[in-house]
Amino acid sequence: MQLRRLERHPQTFGAAGSLTPSEIHTIVAIGYEEKILMSELAARLEVTKGAVSQLVVRLETKQLVTRSSYPHDSRAVLISLTEKGKEAYTAHEEVHLQFYDQLRSRLSRQEIEIFETCIEKLNEFLQK
């Protein structure tokens, strides 16, 4: 329930300001130095192209991503992070690092190994 609660609420990521979980996950899926096709982004996020289009519009409005034409196919659209988007990406990575540092400081080496094994098994189960 705690994870579900955390996943619903926007968080602040540097100069990007408040972002919803779906917005920051989209930024992470695009990647720091990447340009990605809209269709690839939809596949990475496992959502429809329409859903990705809506997310991209919101992120464009916040000046976090830009669209450009794909050189080999004028119908295809490439998405990339702006400098502000890259700041959000980096801020998100910092949040994760701080979380894991805090978690490691509270767990023994054995507890960490058990936790990592459980997470791996959970991921395997969720991918089925």
Describe this structure in words.
This protein is an alpha+beta fold and 128 residues long. Strands 3-5-4 form a 3-stranded antiparallel β-sheet. Strands 1-2 form a two-stranded antiparallel ribbon. Helix 3 (38-45) packs across helix 4 (49-61). It has 6 helices and 5 strands. The relative contact order is 0.13. The model has no long low-confidence stretch (mean pLDDT 89).
Short note summarizing the structure:
The chain has helices spanning 2-8, 21-30, 38-45, 49-61, 83-106, 109-126, and strands at residues 11-12, 18-19, 35-37, 65-70, 73-81. The chain is of the alpha+beta class. The model has no long low-confidence stretch (mean pLDDT 89).
- Biggest sheet, spatial arrangement of strands: 3-5-4
Percentage of residues in strands: 15-25%
Mean pLDDT: 89
In terms of quaternary structure, the protein is single chain
Keywords:
6 helices, alpha+beta, 128 residues, two-stranded antiparallel sheet, single chain, globular
Describe the secondary-structure layout.
Layout: H1 2-8, E1 11-12, E2 18-19, H2 21-30, E3 35-37, H3 38-45, H4 49-61, E4 65-70, E5 73-81, H5 83-106, H6 109-126
Antiparallel strand pairs: 1-2, 3-5, 4-5
Helix pairs in contact: 3-4
